[in-house]
Amino acid sequence: MQFKSGDFATAPTVLEIEGLEVSLPPSSGLPPVLQGINLRIRKGETVCLVGESGSGKSVTSLAIMGLLPKDALAVTGGAIRLSGTELRSLTPGQMRALRARRVAMIFQEPMTALNPVQRVGDQIAEVLETHTPLDGAEIRKRVTDVLEQVHLPDVERIARSYPHQLSGGQRQRIMIAMALVLEPELLIADEPTTALDVTTQKQILSLIAELQARHGTAVLFITHDMGVVAEIADTVCVMRHGVLVEQAPVNQLLRNPREDYTRALLKAVPSLVPRAARPEPTQPPVLQVRALDKTYGGGGLLRRRPETRAARGVTFDVAPGRTLGIVGESGSGKSTVARCIMRLIEPTAGEIRLRGTDIAGLSRAGLKPHRRHIQVVFQDPFRSLNPRWTVGRSLTEGPLNYGTPRSEALRQARELLALVGLPEDALDRYPHQFSGGQRQRIAIARAVAMKPDVLVADEAVSALDVSVQAQVLDLLADLQNRLGITIVFITHDLRVAAQICDEVIVMQKGEVVEQGAAAAVLANPAHPYTRALIEAAPGRHWDFANFRALAPGAAS
Amino acid sequence: MFGYILRRILAVIPVLLIVAIFVFLLLRLTPGDPAAIIAGDMATPAQLERIRDQMGLNDPLHIQFITWMGALLQGDLGVSLISNTDVTTMIGQRIWPTIHIALLTIVISVAVAVPLGVLAAWRHRSWVDYAVMSFSVLGFSVPVFVIGYLFILAFSLTLGWLPVQGYTPPTQDFGAFLSRAILPALTLATIYIALIARMTRASMLEVLSEDYIRTARAKGVAERRVLFRHALRNAAVPIMTIVGTGFALLISGVVVTESVFNIPGIGRLTVDAILARDYPVIQAMILLTSAIYVLVNLVIDISYTFFDPRIRY
Amino acid sequence: MNSVPQPASALQWALRALSLPRRWKFGLGPALAALVLVAIVFVTLLSPWIAPHDPMAMNPLGRMQPASGAHPLGTDAYGRDLLSRVLIGGQVSLLIGVAAAAVSVAIGLLIGLVAGFFRLADTIIMRIMDSLMAIPSILLAIALVALNGPSITSVVLAITIPEIPRVVRLVRAVVLSAREEPYVEAAIALGSGMPKILLQHLMPNTMAPLIVQGTYILASAILTEAILSFLGAGVSTEIPTWGNIMAEGRTFFRIKPELILWPGLMLSLCILSINLLGDAARDMLDPRLKKRAA
Amino acid sequence: ETTLTAVMHSGLRVLDPVITTAHITRNHAYMIYDVLVAVDENFEPQPQMAEWEISDDGLTYTFTLREGLLFHDGAPVTAADAVASLNRWASRDSGGQIIMDFTESLEAADDRTIVWTLSRPFPAMLDTIGKQSALPPFIMPARVAETPSDTAITDYTGSGPFRFVEEEFQPGVSVTYAKFEDYVPRDEPPSWMAGGKVVHLDRVVWVNMPDAQTAINALATGEIDYMEQVQIDLLPLLEFEEGVTVEVRDPLGSQTMGRLNFKHPPFDDVRIRQAALRALGQEAVLATLMGDPAYYSLCGAIFGCGTPLENDTGSETLLAGGDPDGARALLEEAGYDGTPIVLMQPTDVSSLIAQPVVAAQALRNAGFTVDMQPMDWQTLVTRRASQNAPADGGWNVFFTNWMVPEVNSPLISPMLNGRGDSAWFGWPEDPEIEALKLEFIDATSLEEQQEVAARIQAHTLEQVLYIPLGQYVFPQARRDTITGMIGSPVPVFWNIEKAE
Ligand SMILES: Nc1ncnc2c1ncn2[C@@H]1O[C@H](COP(=O)(O)OP(=O)(O)OP(=O)(O)O)[C@@H](O)[C@H]1O
Ligand SMILES: Nc1ncnc2c1ncn2[C@@H]1O[C@H](COP(=O)(O)OP(=O)(O)OP(=O)(O)O)[C@@H](O)[C@H]1O
Ligand SMILES: [Mg+2]
Ligand SMILES: [Mg+2]
Predict the structure, then answer these.
(1) Engineered SS bond to B71: which of A265, A317, A412, B76, CB 3.0-4.6 Å?
(2) Are residues A86 and A13 in the same domain?
(3) How many helices (H) and strands (E) does chain C have?
(4) Cβ contacts of residue A420 below 8 Å, gap of 6+?
(5) What is the Cα–Cα distance from D364 to D370, expressed in whole angstroms?
(6) pLDDT per residue as tens digits for the range A46-87
(7) Residue D242, SS3?
(8) Domain containing A239 — which CATH number?
């Protein structure tokens, strides 16, 4: 494994944070969210910020941007300097002129971060309109370019689409494009690739690297994916509970982590080597999907827009107690399949048999008795939680629907919160008061609370740091052992897939291109796309848990 | 979408049919006798009876309904019982002043209220917010005629800038139209400004706490643009609803302003007709307003899909 | 520095003494508003005992008197005591205003939720609403009074029926946007029934616009009542209401503006307080606007 | 070109002066039609379109049309037109009906001569066809006058001093008249509806302004020239207005009155009717209605004060402000059981709003139980025609106003009809009043008429056929640029000059 080995001793400092403290309003009586953060990023350097979910990574980046939520959080101490300018003393106007042009940020949750009522192309163009004197045609050209740079297919259609018409990964790439389009001095990327498949991720990472090489962009990269860290970091910072616990060059940190927490974190990184196969199932499949088709309709005021065939002839079976992984390109139709299975959207054609019944054509009322047997964790945890409901209320909603008494439901909810590693007082808080990973854990807890037969998890762990991720995966495994839950697990993370899946299907452009036992597919990919996927897995030559490189050949 | 619009336009027909039956029955349930108004105070019961016969008011209800519907299907709205004038002509004379003033009112209201509401939401709980609130409260709770009188007192009687009353069609003399229409439009606009500003504020407050607003700011977009391009459009659906239903209401005429400013609009026509039980005029007016409502509502519904592409029909 | 208790803190102290739940942290504005509203309702209810004169007793030879000791606000065109009329006027006005607002919002909300959520219901319900909207309340009022005789119920109905479609439209519009939110899908996936989704997930989204619309209806119902009563389709003009006191004062707008001023002031104060309270309630319903409290 | 813009007391909607008795329609008719004979300010009939001769036996009236009379379409006015118009009028007007009862023949002898032969003398003949209210016999072309009298006419050709501009007519909003250039006025000076109708204006526009303050403001700024009626309470607004004159044009004004329902208890009992009369006082009603004593006068005369038949027998308590104690005693005596009396209150007619309110209070004071029911005028008009019991959609009391010229003679006053079901609403069954009216017809001199009238007055108030509540008049307002208005109960627009 070759780490980046840039020497920045002479490079000018782009970002310098000294003693940063961010607090909740004094009336809350809670300790500061961030304490004494010191951080420096030099020209051309990539600093990766890793750490527990909820440790303050996003808050740090928002503080730099000067975009902390007004009534909730405020910088209460320290300094943030961009190339020597103290940002905290700038007027709002000066700060505005700086954003996107000199510091750009990619936000963690692309669905909520994009304006739902504007075409994504226009949202990118707006950056150019605001900060450059370019004319309409030039702007359009630049937008098309940048969309191509982030490897979006069908650029014309995508630019014309509204956010809700794009897949999670496509939205994330829109965010990335928006941040990159002006080639800023400092790029803050808050988990920019969690929703991307590894091939796309690789392209994005190289795009950022390219930018860095050309302009000396300084990058603050927040991620949970140690593979990515291994690939791109110059320096790694580890955060926990609002404090920077360790900061070291990547080489040193991966080989010789100083802090116990860092060691624990690295130990939790799952291996790319598929786990040992479980015995073949004997029971009949609990979920059967046959020739599933989904076409998104065109619409348009007078003229019909072209349609999108998001799923074509998808067919698979899952036996009780087994885990099926769905991997594949972003925009290949994974979420579409999941939403069809859940019957949240109407499949265009095909059959979905849940415990023997075809639910593809059932009415709303007819579906109700089946709902409790199949649950979902959405790709977009924030939007899938009602912002006006406390977490407790969301967690008990399902059980209450099926007759669990309130006190019992609450007790369960509290247990589940503990299981997913959230404090008990979370029950009374609202979704917007949590970090991205915390919200995802809430969403998982909500689905699990129903004790379903089938759990569809759409990128359920991608926003979690590896240690929590490991806990959650253990939790799922445990549930599976105890209750025989069947899991359909949609993921980009081949490490995760390798660790928990019995079977894997690989999707590309709405079709299943490869299908089989996890060990077989991941170890000996037959389809060229699968092979490309595995090739692209970051950090696949490093054995994180043991702080050393893998023996050559072990991974492929 | 095109099919949807077509369906909605076709839906006018059943709506009008329901309204027609409903209004017809409602009118026949209300006491009142157009014959009496025609005949005047001195008429004897026998004379009244003869006039009623003459006007067909003594026919059985279903006959009256069929006669009326029959004529209606041929596009004939009938003749006013009181003035013997063709109803189509009457409405034709009276609807334009109402439409012109309604348009002017809505334009003024939206132009003033939306920025005010945006400002109030942006400076939530500041003096701007409270000032907008106080203004709205006045707009809600002061009778329209008071506002009208005050405007007349100020602009016409004291300053002598504008005429007190009357209406000139814009096609005839646009300057004269404006000078006469501006006060009634402003008067009506006070209520609508109040309502729309409050609605804008309420709706904007929800939107301003969304993540994409933060994104827009992160792009370095000017605050004004953040408010008007990003937030307002997301907040637009309820605002549009209020504007739309308000416009529909204005189109059906506002009696008080029409009286205070002596505008020959359809609001007065309707009320006069109701008070005189001039059945053909009332029926025609209500049919007309419901047709207008259906169309205005269609426009509102279509505008939703423009403001919020997630809305589908 | 200053040991004299500030009115603000005195007020907050008073509220604390009433031991309102701590969650109900009022600002000064809403607290004042609540106080004003309670005061108005109180005075209105007690008016038969407080009012210095019989509000209906006429004195044709003592019309339009200026304020005096006997008539603190003067007398009206029939020589009736204005103060007594304004005090008692709140009874019918508030009843009609509150009833009209409550009924139209409640019914409109229910219908609007259903119309917004179910496509089929939408087409049918909204066409019916379109037709209802076109019926002038004057006509309706005359018909209702003819059927039931003059009563507050008839007036409320006549005002409410054309108002409901407007509420329905508003609610529906909000629901149309909100129903596409993933949390609604999540609720469906969790097996929540339609009533629950409509009432618990979608309804809170409609609160902010409904509070605005509701206070507007309240105010306009009070004013419309006067118009109806002057067309003989409302409550008797003998019984004072804020609306008909103002409407009777219309002629005297320039001669004796007090006739409009006092009832208008009462009405404005009511609407202002209700608005302030509504805003406070709304802020409380929307956790994102609420400052984070421990 | 001079245009006079006038705000009239109401909007013009009905254009047929025979089918309706609405004052605005009558005013309109005086603009575009002419009459054969007209009463002058001394209540004397004078020739207008025609001179007359009466045969010595008083049975034959020969009318000769003036030369040069033309309709607006250019056709000459002929005797045949006049006969057709008189016939149509007589089929509607109560006075006309009486004459027709005595008519042997009514014929056009030649183009300009009309011969009207009666079967018995009818001394009030000329007064009746020359009356200015409520239904004067206007002369229309024969083709129009042939329309049945219960169908509204649709051709508005007249021979009066103004032409109706049909294209500019907006019912209830505005109506435009243009000077009829070919009109030949008489030579005498104008006096009420008689005399020369010389037109100095090119156009007259009547607009209806539902809001009284708007009209006042418009008058103040000169946007209009004339207001037919100014609400008394608004007079202070014009007081200091330069260039505006407020004055009374109509010397008689109107009478306001209450009418009881004879068909149902309690007012089928004369004592209870008398109690109601005693309960009321004119001053309270008038003061509330008008405000300023300059514009009302207490008047107990059913034929109006300032008229030849004036007499106020029996009205003492009304003039003295009521006698609640006397009323209570009468109620006691009659054994009134407290049944609520239904008092209809029209809420949309400004000249009738105050009476019910004041009366309700006075009646309650005297011990009546009153159920005052507000309603719009149309509802009232329907309901007053109902002979049902009050609790069942009928009524007990309502109020109305008549112009004095509409009640100043027992022959025309609708309130004095005693023919039960065919009488005016309230339906008194009173043969005695009918007999008295016949005596009145036969009276040949004013003195004789006054004597019978006094007995009618006494009888009316004793039986309480109705309760006269006094007389009032609305002032008019004009810009000072308007001169030459003649005083008369009907506002007319001839003789008026407008300075620029
Ligand atoms: N608006 C807010 N109000 C109150 N607390 C908040 C708010 N936003 C974040 N927090 C809290 O601040 C802490 C840090 O959150 P932050 O979003 O920075 O976490 P993170 O490190 O980005 O986590 P993740 O990896 O899960 O995204 C968390 O405990 C979170 O609950
Ligand atoms: N509502 C919609 N209307 C139109 N097109 C849609 C809609 N939703 C998704 N699509 C399109 O369907 C395709 C599949 O989307 P889907 O969300 O299933 O992808 P995915 O495999 O989940 O991708 P990711 O890993 O990026 O989440 C994409 O090309 C997307 O643009
Ligand atoms: Mg985060
Ligand atoms: Mg997806």
Answers:
(1) B76
(2) yes
(3) 11, 0
(4) A441, A442, A444, A445, A468, A471, A472, A475
(5) 6
(6) 999 998 888 889 899 999 988 888 778 888 888 999 888 898
(7) coil
(8) 3.40.50.300
Q: Which of C130, C244, D38, C190 is nearest to B17 (CA)?
A: C130
pLDDT of residue D306: 86
Mean pLDDT throughout C102-110?
Answer: 94
Looking at per-residue pLDDT, the higher value among B131 and C60 belongs to B131
Is the pLDDT score of C6 beyond 70? no
Average pLDDT of B32-61?
A: 79
Instruction: Determine the topology of domain B94-312 in CATH.
Output: MetI-like fold (1.10.3720)
Whole-number Å distance, alpha carbon A59 to ligand 1 midpoint, is 6
**pLDDT value, residue A298:** 57
Residue D46 has pLDDT above 90, yes or no: yes
In the Cβ-directed half-sphere of D184, how many Cα atoms lie within 13 Å?
Answer: 12
A10 and A82 both lie in a single domain: yes
Question: Would you put residue A354 in left (φ > 0), alpha (ψ -120 to 50) or beta?
Answer: beta
Query: Residue A438 CA: which ligand 1 atom is closest?
Result: 26
What DSSP state is assigned to residue D419? B
Question: Are residues A173 and A189 located together in one domain of the fold?
Answer: no
| A near B: at least 3 beta-carbon pairs less than 8 Å apart | yes
Whether residue B80 contacts residue B281, with contact meaning beta carbons closer than 8 Å, is answered with: yes
Which domain does A174 fall in, by range?
112-183
Number of domains in chain A: 2
Distance in Å, CA A117 to ligand 1 centroid: 27
CA pair distance C188, C202, nearest whole angstrom: 12
How many domains does chain C fold into?
1
Beta-carbon pairs below 8 A across chains C and D: 83
Residues C140-149, mean pLDDT to the nearest whole number? 77
Q: Is the CB of A23 under 6 A from ligand 1?
A: no
Give the whole-angstrom CA distance, residue B11 versus residue C149. 36
| Per-residue pLDDT at B64 | 85
Indicate whether A346 pLDDT > 80: yes
pLDDT-derived band at C27, boundaries 50, 70, 90: low
CATH number at residue C203: 1.10.3720.10
Residue A167: CB within 6 Å of ligand 2? yes
Residue among A101, A107, A300 minimizing CB distance to B215: A107
- Confidence label for A301 from pLDDT (cuts 50, 70 and 90): very low
- Expressed as residue numbers, the domain containing C239 is 81-289
Residue D253 has pLDDT above 70, yes or no: yes
Last residue of a domain, one of A183, A205, A230: A183
Least Cα separation, residue D412 to chain C (angstroms): 31
Instruction: Report domain extents, chain B.
Output: 2-73, 94-312
Residues A97 and A188 in one domain: yes
